[in-house]
Structures are given as structure tokens and as C-alpha cells.
Design brief:
Elements (H helix, E strand, L loop, with lengths): L2 H20 L6 H13 L12 E3 L4 E8 L4 E7 L6 E3 L4 E9 L11 H4 L2 E7 L4 E8 L6 E3 L6 E2 L4 E5 L3 E7 L3 E3 L6 E2 L5 E5 L4
Antiparallel strand pairs: 1-14, 2-3, 2-13, 3-11, 4-10, 5-6, 5-9, 6-7, 7-11, 8-10, 12-14
Helix pairs in contact: 1-2
Length: 201
């Protein structure tokens, strides 16, 4: 479990206990329920990371859109409030850029969210390919967390951050990748393969 979830749960439970003590024992029930929700929302299950020249999903959720051009493929993953919100590195390599950009809080499933919403974009250099992915805030999500800084190295599937309470992640892949998913599929962070790298002859 993400430690943040424990803090939220303890604070909510304490508020419920205080309210119950000051008024009626049942008055704190909503706070207790929210504490349980926080513990569940911030869950962080272990994942089996596939070995190979793969780009794995950086987020749990459903693929709501795939945009393909000759130069780039963008895979958009929507996380609802019931999904695990811990984000993971799609490939192994060096973090060469972490760029935060303030913005709006539109519903994350809308196309405009990829352009207008608050986001944090991370670029990883895997030697044979650069992969860029954006943590995008949504209508409810108001806090993007990233653990990594430029110059640090990550392994594929390594935890790199989270987005609180509903969001979206866009993955940008170059033409050297062969897509292995389609729109409508559900994916799991770290364990679902989004694409396979075409090995150079």
C-alpha cells in the first residue's frame, strides 16, 4: 500500500472518532468509510514484469484511444476511481526529462484532456528507443506525484509515481514499436505489454 493512503486513512479515522466522541458514536461513520476507501484506493499490488523488448503499460485502466501517424503512436489509458493508481515505468532506461505543466481538470476520458489538463510528462531513453508518457490529471484527480528526476535510471515496471483519484496516462511510441493492444482492452501497470520493439537487423 502507498504510504499516502495510510496517512489519509488515519486522518479520516481520527476525525470520525473525534466527531463520534463529541456528538453521537454513529456520526463518525462517513469518516470511517472514507478511511477504508483510502486504504483500498492506495493499494499497490506486486506485478510480474514480462522480460523482453517490450513496452509495458504504465497504468491500470482501459485503452480509450489509439492514435497512429507515420511518426508516432499514442496510446491513451483511462483510470477510473476503482483502478490501481500507482504508475510504473514502461521501459528500462535513463530518465532524460520530467516536465510538469499546469492546466485544467477536464474529464480525463475526453480528447481535450491530453492537451488542456494538468500533466506531468516523463521521457525515458532506453538506448534503442525514447518513450514518453504523460500522467494527466482528471476531473477528480488534483494531485500528480512523480518519484523520479532527470538522470535517474529505471527498470521496466518500476514504480515511478501515482495520480490521486481518477486520471489518464498517454504513452507516446515511435515507429520502431509494434503495437500489441487495441482500443477497449483493459491493461495492468507493469504486466500488460503495450508494444514490442522491432529489433534491428
Amino acid at each position: 500500500m502507498v504510504i499516502t493512503g495510510l496517512y489519509f486513512a488515519l486522518a479520516s479515522a481520527a476525525a470520525g472518532a473525534l466527531l463520534g466522541w463529541l456528538t453521537h458514536p454513529w456520526a463518525g461513520s462517513p469518516f470511517y468509510l472514507f478511511a477504508v476507501f483510502c486504504l483500498w484506493f492506495f493499494r499497490d499490488p506486486e506485478r510480474e514484469i514480462p522480460q523482453g523488448p517490450y513496452c509495458v503499460s504504465p497504468a491500470d485502466g482501459r485503452i480509450i484511444r489509439i492514435r497512429q501517424t507515420p511518426k508516432e503512436t499514442v496510446v491513451s489509458i483511462f483510470l477510473n476511481i476503482f483502478d490501481v493508481h500507482v504508475n510504473r515505468a514502461p521501459i528500462a532506461g535513463k530518465v532524460v526529462d520530467v516536465a510538469y505543466r499546469p492546466g485544467k481538470f477536464l474529464v480525463a476520458s475526453r480528447d481535450e484532456a491530453s492537451v488542456q489538463n494538468e500533466m506531468n510528462t516523463i521521457t525515458i531513453d532506453g538506448r534503442e528507443s525514447l518513450v514518453k508518457f504523460s500522467q494527466i490529471a482528471g476531473l477528480i484527480a488534483r494531485r500528480i506525484v512523480c518519484y523520479k528526476k532527470p538522470g535517474e535510471y529505471v527498470t521496466a515496471g518500476e514504480r515511478i509515481g501515482l495520480i490521486r483519484f481518477g486520471s489518464r496516462v498517454d504513452v507516446h511510441l515511435g515507429p520502431e514499436w509494434t503495437l500489441r493492444v487495441k482500443e477497449g482492452e483493459r491493461v495492468s501497470a507493469g504486466s500488460s505489454i503495450l508494444a514490442e520493439l522491432r529489433l534491428k537487423e
